[in-house]
Design a protein that fits this description.
Distance between the termini: 35 Å
Strand content: 15-25%
Structural class: alpha+beta
Largest sheet: 8 strands, mixed
Shape: rod-shaped
Helix content: 40-55%
Number of helices: 16
C-alpha cells in the first residue's frame, strides 16, 4: 500500500491578469500629486495675490492723480465759469460797462463765492479796468483806473498784447474762456494765473472779463491734500518750472517779472529736482505704478515714486500735476508679496522633502516585506529576519512575517519544498484536477538497517539516516525528481509527476547511477572512520499513474497512485533475492523503464519474474551493474 504525497493548499486561480501597482510608487505618485496640486493652488493664489497687489497699488496711484487733478480743476474751473458769466452779463447788458457800482458789487459777490479767486476784473479796450481784488484778512478793494498808469508792471504789457490780438476779430464773441500767460504781481510777490474771455457788443470788441488766481493759493490748496507723511504734491509749468510746491510759501526764490516762478534747479527740494534726471528702471515695480505718467527716481539715497498727469487746458504751456512719495510704501507691498513667495516656496520644498522622506521610510520596509513575502511564497525560509521599524502597522506586518518564516522554516522540513514550488508555479489547475500521466517511480531501502540500529544509540541512528537521506535526496532532486516521502529507512521518489517530462525514465536511471556512485564513496569513507557500511536496494518502474488530491476533508495530500507505484515497490523488494552479501547495492528496473529511457545497449538482463500483486511476469534488468562498470 502506498502513502499519499503531502501538499499545500491550492494557489489562487491562475490566468487572471490584473494591474499590479507598487505601493511605494503609489505613495510617491500620490504624495507627489498632492504636492503638485498644492503647488498649483499656491501658484494660483500667488498670481492672484500679485495681481491684486498690483491692481491695488495702481488704483491707489490713479486715485492720487485723480484727486490732485480734481483739486486743481476745482480751484481753477470755477474762476473760468465766473469769467464766462461776467462776459454774458456784460454782453446781454444785464450790467452796463459804465455801471461801476453794479459791476463792482457783482465782482464782490463773486469773490465771496469763490475763495480761491484773488481778483476779478473787466478790462476795456482803452485799458481802463474795473476790478475787485482780495486782500489779506478778507478785505476787498474795488478799483477803477487805467492800467496805463502802471507802465512798469507786466500786467499792462500782458493786457495790451492780449487786447491787440483780440481786437478787430468779428468772431471774438464765440471764443471760449482762455488761460493766459503767467502775470507777475509785485504787490504780493507772486505770479498770477489768469482766465480771460472777450466781451463783444454789437459785434464790436469792447474788452475782456478777467479772473486771477495766485500761485500761493494753489500751493496751499495742494498742501492740504497731502496726507502721506513724506509725500509732496506739486504742479510743474512745462517740464522745468514749478507752479505749486510747499516751499513756495516759506522760501524766498527772488522771483520777478523775468522769473515769475522758480526753475527745478532752484527749488529747495532735491527729490523734485531729480524728477527727470534720477530715473531708474525697476520692472518689478513699474507695473504697479499705474497712472497716466509714473516713474521711479533715485535721490537722497532713497527711491521715490512720481505719479503725475499732464493738463493741456490752462494755457499754451502744459501743466504737470502730481505727487511723489517714498518707494517704501510700495516696497512694503512688494516685500510682503516677496516674503509670501519665499515662505510659500520654502514650505513647498519642505513639504516635498518631508513627503520624500516619508515615502522613503515607508518604501524601505514595504520593499523588505514584499521581498520576504515572495521568498515565503517560494518556500525560501533561509532569509534573515526583517528589521524593526517605527511605523507601527508596517512593524506589525514585519514581525508577523518573521514569525511565519520561523514557523514555516520548521514546517519546510516536513514538506517537500520542490514539490510545493512546482505546484505553485503550475497554478491551481495543477492540484485541483486529477489527471493521468506517465511517470517513473523509485523506491529505495537499506538492507539490514533495523538489526544494525539495535547496536547504536537513537542519536547515532538518526545521524546515519539523515546523512543517508541527504545523499539520496541530492541525487534525486539533481536529476529533476521529487522525494515523495521517507518511510522508515526507505525513500519514495517520482519523476514527471508535477510537470510533464518526456525524459522521466532516463532522468530516474541517471539518479540511480548517481546514488550508487555516491553510496560507494560514502561507504569508503565510513570504512576509514570505522563506521558501519550501508547496503541498499533500489526498485524502478515507469508507467501511468493518477495524480491529484487524495484524502478526506481537512486532510488532503497531493499524490500519485496506481499499479506503477506498487510495481516499483515490488521491484525494490525483489532485490532481496538477487543481492549478494558482498554487494553494497542492487538496482532492479522494469523493461518499461529501460525502453522509455532508450538504453542501447540494454543493461544486464535478470529475467522474467513474477511480482506480488500483479498478474503475469515482467522483464527485469539490473541497472547497478552499469554503475559498477
Amino acid at each position: 500500500m502506498t502513502e499519499p504525497l503531502p501538499t499545500v493548499n491550492p494557489p489562487p486561480e491562475a490566468g487572471r491578469h490584473r494591474v499590479r501597482l507598487s505601493i511605494s510608487r503609489v505613495l510617491t505618485v500620490g504624495v507627489g500629486a498632492l504636492m503638485l496640486l498644492a503647488g498649483l493652488a499656491y501658484g494660483i493664489a500667488l498670481v492672484s495675490g500679485r495681481l491684486n497687489t498690483v491692481e491695488l497699488l495702481r488704483d491707489r496711484n490713479d486715485r492720487i492723480v485723480n484727486r490732485l487733478t480734481e483739486r486743481t480743476q476745482q480751484q481753477l474751473d470755477p474762476a473760468a465759469r465766473q469769467v464766462e458769466m461776467l462776459r454774458q452779463r456784460l454782453q446781454t447788458r444785464q450790467i452796463g460797462i459804465n455801471e461801476i457800482g453794479r459791476l463792482t458789487d457783482y465782482m464782490v459777490a463773486t469773490l465771496d463765492a469763490l475763495p480761491q479767486v484773488d481778483a476779478i476784473a473787466f478790462l476795456r479796450n482803452d485799458l481802463i479796468a474795473t476790478r475787485v481784488q482780495r486782500h489779506p484778512g478778507g478785505r476787498y478793494e474795488p478799483l477803477h483806473d487805467s492800467i496805463a498808469d502802471y507802465f512798469d508792471r507786466p500786467a499792462r504789457e500782458e493786457a495790451v498784447r492780449r487786447l491787440r490780438e483780440t481786437a478787430g476779430r468779428t468772431d471774438a464773441y464765440r471764443n471760449p474762456v482762455g488761460w493766459g500767460a503767467l502775470i507777475w504781481n509785485p504787490d504780493i510777490g507772486q505770479a498770477l494765473i489768469n482766465a480771460h474771455a472777450p466781451v463783444v457788443l454789437d459785434n464790436i470788441f469792447i474788452g475782456e472779463a478777467l479772473a486771477v488766481v495766485s500761485l500761493g493759493t494753489l500751493t496751499r490748496l495742494l498742501e492740504t491734500d497731502s496726507t502721506d507723511g513724506e509725500a509732496v504734491n506739486f504742479i510743474l509749468y512745462g517740464d522745468d518750472a514749478v507752479l505749486a510746491h510747499p516751499t513756495l510759501l516759506n522760501h524766498d526764490y527772488k522771483l520777478s517779472m523775468e522769473k515769475p516762478v522758480p526753475r527745478l534747479q532752484d527749488i529747495h527740494d532735491p527729490v523734485l529736482q531729480n524728477i527727470w534726471s534720477g530715473q531708474i528702471d525697476m520692472l518689478a515695480a513699474r507695473a504697479m505704478l499705474g497712472s497716466d505718467g509714473a516713474h521711479i527716481v533715485e535721490a537722497e539715497n532713497r527711491r521715490w515714486i512720481f505719479v503725475y498727469r499732464r493738463l493741456n487746458v490752462y494755457g499754451e504751456t502744459p501743466w504737470l500735476v502730481g505727487r511723489y512719495f517714498p518707494f517704501d510704501l510700495v516696497e512694503t507691498e512688494v516685500n510682503r508679496l516677496r516674503v509670501s513667495v519665499v515662505v510659500g516656496g520654502i514650505s513647498l520644498i519642505l513639504s516635498l522633502l518631508v513627503a520624500w522622506r516619508l515615502g522613503h521610510l515607508i518604501r524601505k520596509p514595504l520593499l523588505a516585506i514584499g521581498d520576504a513575502a515572495n521568498r515565503l511564497r517560494n518556500l525560501d525560509f533561509d532569509t534573515p529576519p526583517l528589521e524593526r521599524t517605527r511605523l507601527r502597522e508596517l512593524d506589525d506586518a514585519a514581525q508577523a512575517i518573521n514569525a511565519a518564516n520561523a514557523a514555516l522554516r520548521w514546517f519546510g522540513n516536513y514538506v517537500p519544498r520542490k514539490l510545493v514550488n512546482r505546484l505553485v508555479r503550475e497554478g491551481e489547475d495543477a492540484i485541483n484536477t486529477s489527471k493521468e500521466r506517465p511517470v517513473t517511480v523509485m523506491f529505495t531501502d537499506l538492507v539490514g538497517f533495523t538489526a544494525m540500529s539495535e547496536q547504536m544509540s537513537a542519536q547515532e541512528t538518526a545521524d546515519i539516516l539523515n546523512e543517508h537521506f541527504a545523499l539520496v535526496t541530492a541525487c534525486i532532486e539533481g536529476t529533476g525528481g521529487i522525494v515523495d516521502k521517507f518511510i522508515g529507512d526507505a525513500v519514495m521518489a517520482v519523476w514527471g509527476a508535477i510537470k510533464r517530462d518526456e525524459d522521466h525514465a532516463a532522468n530516474a536511471c541517471r539518479a540511480v547511477d548517481e546514488i550508487c556512485k555516491a553510496l560507494a564513496a560514502d561507504n569508503a569513507r565510513h570504512a576509514m572512520l570505522g563506521k558501519p557500511i550501508l547496503r541498499m536496494r533500489i526498485g524502478l518502474h515507469s508507467g501511468p499513474v493518477v495524480i491529484g488530491n487524495i484524502g478526506a476533508p481537512g486532510r488532503i495530500n497531493y499524490t500519485v497512485v496506481g499499479d506503477t507505484v506498487n510495481t516499483a515497490q515490488r521491484l525494490e523488494q525483489l532485490g532481496h533475492d538477487h543481492q549478494q552479501d558482498s554487494e553494497q547495492f542492487i538496482a532492479l528496473v522494469s523493461a518499461e523503464t529501460v525502453t522509455s529511457a532508450g538504453f542501447d545497449p540494454r543493461p544486464p538482463y535478470v529475467g522474467r519474474m513474477a511480482v506480488k500483486g500483479r498478474m503475469g511476469e515482467i522483464e527485469v534488468y539490473r541497472l547497478d551493474r552499469l554503475a559498477k562498470s
